[in-house]
Write a structure and sequence with these properties.
Strand content: under 5%
Distance between the termini: 16 Å
Number of helices: 6
Order of helices and strands: HHHHHH
Radius of gyration: 17 Å
Low-confidence stretches: none
Number of domains: 1
Mean pLDDT: 89
Number of strands: 0
Helix content: over 70%
Largest sheet: none
Length: about 150
């Protein structure tokens, strides 16, 4: 039986932190037309965000397209996959496989849909790569070589 503190720490590190970091990337560096900005405005954060965004605009990172546009996708896939593994107590079975696969299926399905013009957005192969990494990394972390899938 897992200790509650261990589960809480895993939830914070593998679910909350990646989502928060991806959201921060969106809020600081992406277009203000995104839904997150409406949420931030609704809770009164817009003036603070404008100030921080103005400061962040001074940063110039070469070859950063993947960081601003693809990494948040990979982070949410990682987060959702880790969440499902934690909900299923880090066990893969016939019952849990579908649920653990939801994040990767949505992300990769969306990207493939964009490639064929079925889903609104811009297809980017880097998104696929980072979504695949985000899909498999929780398995690598939660199932080291010494443990076995059930």
């Amino acid at each position: 039986m897992k200790r509650p503190l261990s589960n809480s720490l895993s939830f914070f590190m593998h679910v909350i932190m990646p989502i928060a970091f991806g959201g921060l990337i969106y809020l600081l560096f992406r277009a203000k037309s995104l839904l997150m900005f409406r949420w931030a405005c609704a809770i009164g954060l817009e003036p603070y965000l404008d100030y921080i965004r103005a400061y962040c605009a001074t940063f110039s990172i070469d070859n950063s397209h993947w960081f601003f546009y693809s990494l948040p996708d990979g982070l949410w896939v990682y987060s959702l996959t880790a969440f499902m593994l934690l909900v299923w107590e880090r066990k893969l079975s016939r019952s849990s496989f579908f649920w653990v696969s939801i994040g990767p299926l949505l992300a990769l399905g969306g990207e493939i849909g964009q490639a064929f013009g079925v889903v609104i957005g811009t297809f980017d192969p880097t998104d696929i790569i980072l979504c695949l990494i985000g899909s498999f990394l929780p398995h690598v972390i939660f199932f080291p070589k010494t443990s076995k899938y059930i």
